[in-house]
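In pairs, describe these two lines:
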Amino acid sequence: MEYWTSLASVMGVFAFCHGLLHTIFPPELRFAAAKLFHRFLHCFSSYCYFDITEIDGVNTNELYNAVQLYLSGSASVSGSRLSLTRAINSSAFTFALSNNDRLVDSFRGATATWEHVVTQRQSQTFSWRPLPEEKRGFTLRIKKKDKPLLLPSYLDHIMEKATELRRKNQDRLLYTNSRGGAMDSRGHPWESVPFKHPSTFETLAMEPERKEEIMADLRDFAEGKAFYQKTGRAWKRGYLLYGPPGTGKSSMIAAMANYLCYDIYDLELTEVHTNSELRKLLMKTTAKSIIVIEDIDCSINLTNRTSSPRPKETPMDMRGGEDITSKSTITLSGLLNFTDGLWSCCGSERIFVFTTNHIEKLDPALLRSGRMDMHVFMSYCSFPALKILMKNYLGLKDSEDCEDGLLSELEKAIGEAEITPADVSEVLIKNRRLERQKAMAELLGVLKSRAEKRKAGGVGAAEARKKGLNEEMEVEEQEKRALESSSPKEGGAEEAMDDGCNGREEKGED
């Protein structure tokens, strides 16, 4: 009993002193003393701290989301209690630190400790934008001696990595321009759908050396920001894909987009009426994108710099039966400025890809460096490309999985057949349920049949050309005979006209 009485008396004295201190010292003075005390402790501490809150005022802190995405890779490996999220239009899960959990990261030999701090927010008054109940943020702890080494380069590194991860995790989009350049509710002339084409450079039917050359060029472009700034060039690149139909030009574009994680803008020139609309479409494209114009030789009739007449036959709109080129006033100069003029610099990290089946029909101004920097010939299926297709469709890993002599026959037949990768793929798809050797034997039969038809067609084509040449010579001879055997009346009239002219000339001389 005496113990509790003495304890109560002590607590009463403490409360009296506490109240006296609050009465004597105002809140401002107590706050200044606490702040001075923390600064005193900070002078003897070897660490410095930085708080990164989720919401900065009323706006979302972009750095908070970047740190959360950047730490997701390390958290998935070292964390024991994690939270999983999946963003909209994302194809991957994001690992995040749970409440009040820590993670240690290193950068350039320095150590950085991250702590995810989550506290309950105090009751808020009325606001136009209600805040979440929990207050989230990251606390960065680094040594004072490492501060010049980490800041701000470490934060820039986090932002770049987060942007790269966000682009890889997001679903890529395929855009197309609206009919007549119409704007949607947000004022954008592009309509988009998710792009899920599975083509990659690994599955692309092409010589490995050629693929590696294209991939190296794409890597140099994507990592060449400093180079383009130093040389004063616009950060863009142009590719021309040409070759027969069915050689994989569209698959090449899809492989480029999947390799770089870029969006694709499929520009339909027949829906663009003026050069001004073309520039507006370019301004509405985003960075890290591929702008594609397929079949540039037959999309529209570009007005060339020479005054050449338009062809008599113009493409007709199948929906309304109207001429689709009569409404278009896009000129060659407008298209050149779109790809390599001043307007092409309104943005960065863009790739222009043109495709055509007849490169000889294109104006030389479109083909020069700066507009089409790299020309890629998509040829008929070669033997290395054939092995890639057999690996894709039949699971052929190496030559040991094939009978002796069958690969050599396929190599000989593929060179004589001149068949496209699309035709080879169709043969393999039809026979994919057969055994591997039987499917390859069926393919060999198709290749040999195609080679024989090609030889027969070559002889027939030569004879047809010879026959056509003879017919043209006969027609020319008939025209000459008709001119020589002209009627005397016509000749007399011509002589009379000549005499009249000579008479007038002599009279004028007199």
Notes: The chain has a mean pLDDT of 77. The radius of gyration is 38 Å. DSSP finds 16 helices and 15 strands in the chain. The longest helix spans residues 436-484.
